[in-house]
Design goal:
Elements (H helix, E strand, L loop, with lengths): L9 E2 L2 H7 L8 E4 L3 E2 L3 E4 L8 E4 L4 E3 L6 E2 L5 E3 L8 E2 L5 E4 L4 E4 L10 E2 L12 E2 L10 E2 L7 H4 L6 H9 L14
GO biological process, one term: methylation
Protein name: Post-SET domain-containing protein
Pfam families: SET
């Protein structure tokens, strides 16, 4: 795995990018590149069962808060330095990113080729770049700004990292979040 890993935001020649691509976790997941801005996605390279640990997240580096980073504590962000940077957001996520155990865990059975997505506010208090959500989930949040801007009722639907749970609970009982779902 490279010490640094860059994510191409806008792809104008998907075929050329695909030819040069070398997966960071062969056999587990891979990036499917698509032309345009932010259209690429991470997909499963094999079937996964609900609650299965897909990968232990390693090789991260501390970095500034930015759209490619993941918040792992109240004031620390990391760069994933791998294909995991292509985990897209969904309000009906297929995986949880447990930053306490540094594991990516299947929320449900996932078939080979299925997208790997997580709920960004589960680890992000306030997004570096908010964005409108078009995931199409029945209970889509519509605007992804971070956990700070969501109700306890919304956050209770998801696995939530300990630092986000603590910050939500500090807002008071009406915003308290249930303990995280048990992970393997």
């Amino acid at each position: 795995m490279p010490a640094t890993y860059t994510k191409e935001d806008t792809i104008t020649d998907a075929e050329a990018v695909k030819k040069a691509y070398k997966p960071t976790h062969p056999g587990l997941f891979e990036v499917v590149y698509a032309e345009g801005s932010f259209n690429s996605e991470l997909v499963a390279s094999k079937d996964y069962k609900k609650d299965e640990v897909i990968v232990v997240v390693e090789g991260t580096t501390p970095g500034p808060k930015k759209y490619t980073s993941v918040q792992v504590s109240r004031d620390l962000h990391i760069e994933l330095n791998s294909d995991l940077v292509f985990l897209n957001h969904s309000c009906d996520p297929s995986v949880s990113l447990d930053t306490d155990k540094m594991q990516l865990i299947a929320n449900r059975d996932i078939k080979k080729g299925g997208p790997l997505t997580f709920f960004y506010p589960s680890s992000e208090w306030e997004m570096d770049q908010s964005f409108p959500c078009w995931c199409g989930a029945e209970k889509c949040s519509k605007s992804i700004q971070g956990a700070k801007y969501l109700s306890a009722e919304t956050m209770d639907r998801y696995y939530v990292t300990s630092h986000i749970r603590e910050l939500l609970n500090e807002r008071g009982p009406e915003a308290a979040v249930a303990p995280p779902k048990k992970t393997t």
